[in-house]
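> call design_seq(struct)
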């Protein structure tokens, strides 16, 4: 069975053959759950984290994770103030 990416994870493998100097050193895929990201206009800022790992076959690669947690300031902006419900 082939390896399947989980949402918001990915892998980058070292390119074995570079056909020209501008070719990437690493290539791979990331599966991004777009519903977990904040969209501003037509742009999405994606934070990545990476871990250097070794496969069962001995290939070194980078394992990636998309950072989807909301910052505290973003959560505060998203929640409307509820001071109107306080009886004084």
């Amino acid at each position: 069975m082939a390896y399947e990416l989980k949402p918001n994870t990915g892998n980058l493998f070292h390119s074995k053959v570079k056909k020209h100097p501008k070719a990437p050193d690493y290539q791979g895929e990331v599966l991004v759950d777009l519903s977990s990201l904040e969209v501003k206009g037509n742009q999405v800022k994606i934070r990545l984290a990476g871990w250097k790992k070794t496969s069962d076959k001995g290939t070194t690669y980078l394992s990636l994770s998309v950072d989807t947690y909301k910052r505290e300031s973003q959560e505060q902006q998203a929640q409307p103030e509820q001071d109107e419900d306080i009886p004084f």
